[in-house]
Amino acid sequence: MELQENMLINDRYRLLEERGRGSFGEVWRARDEVTEAEVAVKIYIALDKQGLKEFTEEFKVANALNHPNLLHADYYDICENRPFIVMPYCPESTVSMVGKMDEGQAWKFLREVSAGLSYLHGKDIVHRDIKPDNILLDREGNFLISDFGISTRMRSTLRRNSTREMSQKDIAGTIGYMAPELFSKKPESVKADAAARGGGTGTGGNVQQGFAGGAGVLPGQGHLEPSHGGAAAIVCGSEAAGRNACKALEIG
């Protein structure tokens, strides 16, 4: 099934605009023809019978998660062997904010993303792919974590069913934001999300990652220690401002 604009999915969701795609599927801005609400529809690749069964079980786990800083799926179904989920539409990710946050914004970012990750970790779920693309802004300006709840097993199933070219992020995360723990023999660690969270705030405007080889690097500013304060320093404009924001959160 080739997706295109104006296509109606399961007689309800009309695709309006493709917002992103990867090896495992596509994200579309869509309209719910029943409620007339603007929504986001993530449509995954076609899966075999066993894959669909596994995906349904995964969705049950993810659907049970409920936190104000997680982007919650409102609906799940299958169309021509392609599972899809329907979520509230968030027009922005934090990609546009990278390297531009002031101290107040960095404080809010770290507080809300930390709260969402703490909730996931309390449920024994490691996100593994925290990056600006996966942290969205709702219409009230709240930070929401997306793309959580897909286990390593499900990623393997998606890879097995995929005929598209694999990207680096399909391995276990996005290389530039991956913590050293993800390259170890036991990669399932909450430390991986914590490091990526810092990288998410600390990416410089010139595609400089928040952490590189264990320490953040900012052109002309030397090395920053891989702490939350060091990461926030990049977006806050100074090390002191970044550490003040993190001290207020008690995570520095």
Task: Walk me through what this model shows.
The chain is 33% helix and 21% strand. The protein is built from seven helices and eleven strands. The strands form three sheets. It has a six-stranded antiparallel beta sheet with strand order 1-2-3-4-6-5, with helices on one face. A three-stranded antiparallel beta sheet has the order 7-8-9. Strand 10 and strand 11 form a beta hairpin. Helix 6 packs across helix 7. The chain is globular, with a radius of gyration of 19 Å.
Rg, rounded, reads 19 Å
Uncertain stretches: 165-180, 195-239
Number of strands: 11
Strand content: 15-25%
**So what's the overall shape?**
globular
Question: How much helical structure, as a percent, in the residues?
Answer: 25-40%
Strand order of the largest sheet: 1-2-3-4-6-5
Distance between the termini: 48 Å
Query: Major sheet, described briefly?
Result: 6 strands, antiparallel
- Overall mean confidence score, pLDDT: 73
The succession of helices and strands, N to C, reads: EEEEHEEEHEEHHHEEHH
- Number of alpha- plus pi-helical segments: 7
Structural class, judged by helices and strands?
Answer: alpha+beta
